[in-house]
Amino acid sequence: MNSITDVELAQFQGFIFAKAGITMASTKRALVEGRLGKRLKLHQLERFGDYFRLLASGDDPDEVQMAVDLLTTNETYFFREIKHFDFLREKALAARNRSQPFRVWSAASSSGEEAYSIAMVLADCLESTPWEVLGTDISTQVLKGATRALYTMERARHIPTAYMRRFCLKGTGEHEGRLLIDRSLRSKVLFRQVNLNVALPRLGQFDLVFLRNVMIYFSDDTKREVVSRVLATVKPEGHFFVGHSETLNNISQAVTPVAPSIYRKAA
Question: Is 108 helix (H, G, I), strand (E, B) or coil?
Answer without folding.
Answer: coil
